[in-house]
From TrEMBL:
PANTHER family: DIAMINE N-ACETYLTRANSFERASE, GH14572P-RELATED. Pfam families: Acetyltransf_1. It comes from the Bacteria. The keyword Transferase applies. It comes from Microbacterium trichothecenolyticum (Aureobacterium trichothecenolyticum). SUPFAM superfamilies: Acyl-CoA N-acyltransferases (Nat). Keywords: Acyltransferase, Transferase. Residues 8-164 form the N-acetyltransferase domain. This is GNAT superfamily N-acetyltransferase. InterPro entries: Acyl_CoA_acyltransferase, Diverse_Substrate_AcTransf, GNAT_dom.
Length: 166
């Protein structure tokens, strides 16, 4: 647990945080202009983060009993380095708490997690129109991987691709 300058604390997520985490996820979807895209539920978050075999993890910033910010992450693996890394799926700070250092604190905690575990990288994506986030990440030394593009298969295309392998 890390105490932050305004009395909030940064800590690993724990059972009971699901509603606050989900509120951050929904607020992020709203910000990213996808308000109806969130299918997640508090129950799904509980199973994913706190079930018998967690495959995703989260750090939260909590203040006065409220989840103010989240970093949700999972492990990756680099065949080139032969080591794991961390993929940051979501970083979100509620708007009224921005400029309190929460984003830097969450990313610093993830960087420390990488180093402590011997992981080789910390990676994430950012929407190309999100200039405030891009500037924030650039100021922390994050490099754009301009030569790489993300690809995704979902829905009908996912089903069709799976059928080709069956």
């Amino acid at each position: 647990m890390t105490d932050l300058r305004d009395g909030a604390v940064l800590r690993p997520a724990r059972a009971g945080d699901e509603t606050g985490i989900l509120a951050c996820i929904q607020a992020l979807a709203d910000y990213e202009k996808e308000p109806d895209a969130v299918e997640n539920t508090a129950e799904m978050i509980a199973a994913t983060l706190f079930g018998d075999d967690p495959r995703a993890f989260a750090f939260v910033v909590e203040g006065e009993g409220e989840i103010r910010a989240i970093a949700i992450w999972f492990l990756t693996y680099s065949t080139w380095t032969g080591r794991h890394g961390i993929w940051l799926e979501d970083l979100y700070v509620h708007e009224q708490y921005r400029a309190n250092g929460y984003g830097v604190a969450l990313l610093a905690a993830l960087a420390a997690e990488c180093l402590d575990r011997g992981y080789s990288r910390l990676e994430w994506t950012v929407l190309d129109w999100n200039e405030p986030a891009i500037g924030f990440y650039r100021a922390l030394g994050a490099e754009a991987m301009d030569e790489w593009t993300t690809r995704r298969v979902t829905g009908d295309a996912l089903e069709a691709l799976a059928a080709r392998g069956r």
